[in-house]
Amino acid sequence: MLQRPRRNRKSEVIRQMVQETYVSAANLIFPLFIVDGENQKSEVSSMPGIYRYSVDNLLREVESCMNLGLKSFDLFPNIDESLKDKYATESYREESLYLRAIREVKKEFPEACVITDVAMDPYSSEGHDGIVENGEILNDATLDVLGKMALAHARAGADIIAPSDMMDGRVGYIRQVLDDHGYSGVSIMSYSAKYASAFYGPFRDALNSAPKFGDKKTYQMNPANQREALIEADLDEQEGADFLMVKPALPYLDVIKLLKDNTELPIAAYNVSGEYAMIKAAIQKGWLNEQRAITEVLTSIRRAGATAILTYHAKEVLLNKWL
Ligand code: PBG
């Protein structure tokens, strides 16, 4: 045998020398859940180790992440049912929980990268990502709300706006609104290939944002489709996106790879709540080795072609020095 691939695996030094993929703090984005009130920190029951923070505790959490070198955060609000309405008006009210949180984080930690979620669902009385009329999700009317929300986020100091709603034309619409108001420097990370996935369940528990009727299949993508992701990615690129996102991550590594091969834009992947819950449940049962399972998942997402990973594991991998 002339070729013996095992020779390149014979020692730790050689294995590291030929290692192709790395995950570092710089690649990680930490999603954080926020809730109204003071001194609140409540664990999400389906996501052990993940909490909803009031703004004061959010600042403490951000500080401890910053000290670990974790500097990018994606914020998601848990909104009181009484503030929800058909047009998600709470999403752009000046004194709302979310806008206050963005302002406070940017004031205390100007060097942190704050990513904001643009979608109606946490604020919608129907729990959908668009305006509902006679049981239908309206596309073009929703763009107006998304534009107001994105502009409010930019004014509050968001570094990157991340539309997760899957309405057609929203990236171009938001880009235009931002540019028209002098925010041409604010980036857009588009959820380009966002699938109608079972793996968002724990997130909807965290935010109490599950749809009140039906499902999200008229706007989120069919898990059976790959080529359709190219249509979405092309449109988002033409409309001015700075990042393209694939979501969820682990069941869609082929889609990450496909987009990587078809665009020069950086790809982000969202290792979603259900992926986190699945790993944590197996670890709690003693069925998986925690460090090895988590680092393998993150490495695989990078290997498939993701530049950035949104993951609930972000803090623990740094805290435990697993990378
Ligand atoms: C909603 C939104 C969802 C997630 C991020 N933004 C859920 C959904 O579409 O219902 C899911 C994230 C996760 O599961 O971790 N716009």
Kindly describe this structure.
With about 325 residues, the protein is α/β, with parallel strands linked by helices. It has a single domain, classed as Aldolase class I (TIM Barrel). About 35% of the residues lie in helices and about 20% in strands. It contains 11 helices and 12 strands. It has helices at about 10-15, 55-65, 95-110, 140-155, 170-180, 200-205, 225-240, 255-260, 275-285, 290-305, 315-320; strands at about 30-35, 40-45, 50-55, 70-80, 115-120, 130-135, 135-140, 160-165, 185-195, 245, 265-270, 310. The strands form 2 sheets. It has an 8-stranded parallel barrel, surrounded by 8 helices. It has a two-stranded antiparallel ribbon with strand order 6-7. Helix 3 links the parallel strand 4 (about 70-80) and strand 5. Helix 2 runs parallel beside helix 3. The longest helix is centred in the middle third of the chain and has 17 residues, at about 140-155. The radius of gyration is 20 Å and the shape is globular. The two termini are about 35 Å apart. The model has no long low-confidence stretch (mean pLDDT about 100). The chain binds ligand PBG. Ligand PBG binds near residues 119, 121 and 164. Ligand PBG binds near residues 117, 121, 203, 272 and 273. It is an enzyme of class 4 (lyase). Homooctamer.
Please provide the count of β strands. 12
**SS-based structural class?**
alpha/beta
What's the mean pLDDT score? 98
Tally of alpha and pi helices? 11
End-to-end CA span = 35 Å
- Report Rg: 20 Å
Uncertain segments of ≥5 residues (pLDDT<50)? none
CATH class: Alpha Beta
Oligomer: single chain
CATH superfamily: Aldolase class I
CATH hierarchy: architecture: Alpha-Beta Barrel
Largest sheet: 8 strands, parallel, barrel
Outline, from the CA principal axes? Answer: globular
Q: Give the helix level as a range of percent.
A: 25-40%
- Stated plainly, the CATH topology is called TIM Barrel
Across the major sheet, the strand order is: 1-4-5-8-9-10-11-12
Bound compounds, each kind once, are: ligand PBG
Strand content: 15-25%
User: How many structural domains in the coordinates?
Assistant: 1
Order of helices and strands: HEEEHEHEEEHEHEHHEHEHHEH
